[in-house]
Amino acid sequence: MPRTERHPGTGAVFPDRHQNQKMSERAPLPPAALDVLQQFRLIYGTMRQYFREVEERCGLPGSQMWILQEVMRSPGIGISELAARMGVHQSTCSQLVERLQQGKYLEKRRRGDDLRRIGLYPDTAGSKTLQALPGPAAGVLPEALSQLPEAVLETLKINLDQLIGHLPAGNRDYARTPLAEMLDRERDENPSS
């Protein structure tokens, strides 16, 4: 069984240094792999640039803008449904909602039809902030994915699953974390980027 090392910050599992030496002796990346790498760079750079523009124009990160947009579309929506729509952990969604509520961008109220349930409603500041959006609140990647035919999405999913299978075992929670949040964390950890 190959030996591994765990990354102290993320908990990701990587092959040990001896295996890394063997990996470094491999041939250079084939042209197709370089092309795909450049495509990932283009996607990442485009998302990063877009979310920076969102924050500059709106004063809020993209993930919070997405929540505001969903609340505007469906006033009274609950946190569980909101988290499901965004494909994020309910706890992550709750934290983002809390920040928006503290900033007076939205409010929580008991829903008239069921007093046990809390619904989210836009506040005036939230409505005004949404008007400054330069494009889709969810970001440019979800927007682009939504425009692809189902067959293309299925093929992409299969191919990405294969790629993910070759990556070191990382934190699976990333799959349920908004892209804008990941980019915000990166910016906070590396202020010069």
Which class of secondary structure composition applies to the elements?
Answer: mainly alpha
CATH architecture: Orthogonal Bundle
Distance from N terminus to C terminus (CA atoms, Å) equals: 38 Å
Would you tell me the overall average pLDDT?
Answer: 84
CATH class: Mainly Alpha
Overall tally of domains: 1
Count every beta strand, where a strand is a DSSP E run of 2 or more residues: 4
Overall 3D geometry?
Answer: elongated
Described by strand count, sense and barrel closure, the largest sheet is: 2 strands, antiparallel
Low-confidence stretches: 6-12
Order of helices and strands: EEHHHHHEEHHHH
Share of residues in helices: 55-70%
Radius of gyration: 20 Å
SSE topology:
Elements: E1 4-6, E2 13-15, H1 17-24, H2 31-58, H3 62-73, H4 79-86, H5 90-102, E3 106-111, E4 114-122, H6 124-130, H7 140-146, H8 150-165, H9 179-189
Protein described:
With 193 residues, the chain is mostly helical. The protein contains nine helices and four strands. Helix 3 crosses helix 5 and helix 4 packs across helix 5. The longest helix is centred in the N-terminal third of the chain and has 28 residues. 19% of the residues are buried. About 4% of the residues have low confidence.
